Amino acid sequence: MSDAEKIDSEERVSRRSILRSATGTVSGGLLMYILFGMLGRGKNFLKPPGAAEDEVFNSLCIRCGKCAKSCPYDAVKIADIDEGTAIGTPYIIAREIPCYLCEDFPCISSCPTNALDHTVILREQVKMGTAIVTDRESCLSLNGIRCEVCYRVCPLIDKAITLETYRNPRTGRHAIFEPVVHRDQCVGCGQCEYKCVLDRPAIKVLPTKVIAGKVGKHYIFGWK
Ligand code: SF4
Ligand code: SF4
Ligand code: SF4
Fold first, then answer.
1. Most buried among 60, 89, 152, 171, by the most CB within 10 A?
2. Any idea where the domains of the chain sit in the sequence?
3. Class of domain 130-211
4. Is the CB of 19 under 6 A from ligand 1?
5. Which residues line ligand 2 (CB under 6 A)?
């Protein structure tokens, strides 16, 4: 675990103990509501493969934890009291353990309520989120250093993520190999974020609605 990850993990533990002691002395939903609002972490969690949009998923998921128990990689975590979402909600933090897109999707088949859609049987059907290079200035590849780890580890290499090459303007003679994510193909498994060699990843996977823009109806792409 890198220093940055250790700090993040320690912060989470201490925040959890503070919250536990606070809620032990002050009862009532108001405190939790305020704290969840302040933390606001839940909104960017990745849900397990096959999960529907928030509203549908939240109405179907009974927080039984079977998906987490069935995951052979322990990728699926269960929300605790301070995670900014309903207690018991399953989620994935790609930088800690990504989804390895198991061939038989045990998480999905163990879900008793179809909150994880049982019709999802191929990895191409999964849509947990979308990867995005969030820090172009730190990305080694974009600095002209041959890295491309995120590209190499992608289970949908050359579909979800490709390398675009062009001349390095800094040296004028070397090449840049830029990792480019294709939103329509990326399934959001998080393996690129997990393997990014930086102390803090330059590529992250976020819920697609967080990063996606929306084109107004009055714009017509005549070439599509
Ligand atoms: S597909 Fe496999 S690795 Fe991914 S969450 Fe499900 S059980 Fe875990
Ligand atoms: S198995 Fe299904 S219902 Fe149970 S916690 Fe996971 S998603 Fe929710
Ligand atoms: S999240 Fe990353 S590794 Fe997974 S499909 Fe998308 S680009 Fe590939």
1. 89
2. 3-125, 130-211
3. alpha beta
4. no
5. 61-67, 90, 110-111, 113, 115-116
